[in-house]
Amino acid sequence: MSGPTAELFADDALQQPAGREQIGEQSYVLRGYALPWIERLLPELRRVLAQSPFRQMVTPGGFIMSAALSSCGELGWTTDRTGYRYTTIDPNSQQPWPALPEALHQLAVMAAEEAGFNDFEPDACLINRYVPGAKMSLHQDKNERHYTAPVVSVSLGLPAVFLFGGHERSDKVQKVSLFHGDVVVWGGVDRLRFHGVLPIKEGVHPQMGPQRINLTFRMAG
Ligand SMILES: O=C(O)CCC(=O)C(=O)O
C-alpha cells in the first residue's frame, strides 16, 4: 500500500464519476463513497492483515483461488477441500479472526443505508486481494444463514470490471467498472444475483500499489 511513482499510475483509476448508479431493482454503485474514509480505513486494514495475513485458499473442487483472502469480524469465510463455510477461527492462526474495526463497520452501515437498507449489522468482512490477472468467477453468496441483509462491497486500488448477472448463471451479465473508493450494495430481491470480477488489468495504483483490495461486508450468522 505504498506510493509508487506517478508515471506508473493506472489511468482509469483517476477517472471517477460521482453519484449513485442503480444497477438492479435493489442494487447500487455508490461512486467514491469510501474515499472520505480511506485515511481511517487503511491503518485499520493493515492491523487486521498483520494478525490474519492474506492466503490463497483451495476450492472444494481442488482449484487454488486467484484472489488471496483474509477476514475480520465475528465470522470469516473460508474454503478448503471439504467445502465453503464461515468460521469463528482463522484456520491458519487457530485464533479468532481479528475484530471488525469501527471505521469499517461504520462505512458499511452507512453505505447500506444510502442504498435503502437500514439496520445492517455486518458480522463478517471478507477481504479479497487481487493482483493483476486475478479474478473471481461468477457465483452467488449463499453461505450466509439468512439472505435478508444486503452485501456491501468496497473497492480499493486498481480498477476492476464487476460482473453483475441474474438469478441463473446463464442470465445476461452487466459489466460495471469499479474504481478506488466505489461501493456496491446489493440486497433484497437482488441479494442472490450471480456476480464476479474479470481478471484485473496490469497497473499500479498511487495509494494501493499493484493490487486491488475488495472488502465485502455481510450478515452471515
Ligand atoms: O471483488 C469484488 O468486487 C467482488 C467480491 C465477491 O464477489 C465476493 O467476495 O463474493
UniProtKB/TrEMBL annotation:
Cofactors, names only: Fe(2+)
Organism: Pseudomonas spelaei
Enzyme Commission number: 1.14.11.33
Protein name in UniProt: DNA oxidative demethylase AlkB
NCBIfam families, alphabetized: PRK15401.1 (NF011930)
SUPFAM superfamilies: Clavaminate synthase-like
EC primary class: oxidoreductase
Keyword hit for Iron: yes
Domain Fe2OG dioxygenase: 121-221
One MF term in the entry's GO annotations: oxidative RNA demethylase activity
Keyword Oxidoreductase attributed: yes
PANTHER family from the UniProt entry: ALKYLATED DNA REPAIR PROTEIN ALKB-RELATED, NUCLEIC ACID DIOXYGENASE ALKBH1
Assigned keywords, A-Z: Dioxygenase, Iron, Metal-binding, Methyltransferase, Oxidoreductase, Transferase
InterPro entries: Alkb, AlkB-like, AlkB-like_sf, Oxoglu/Fe-dep_dioxygenase_dom
Residues binding Fe cation: H139, D141, H195
UniProt GO cellular component terms: cytoplasm
GO biological process annotation, one example: methylation
Cofactor annotation comment: Binds 1 Fe(2+) ion per subunit.
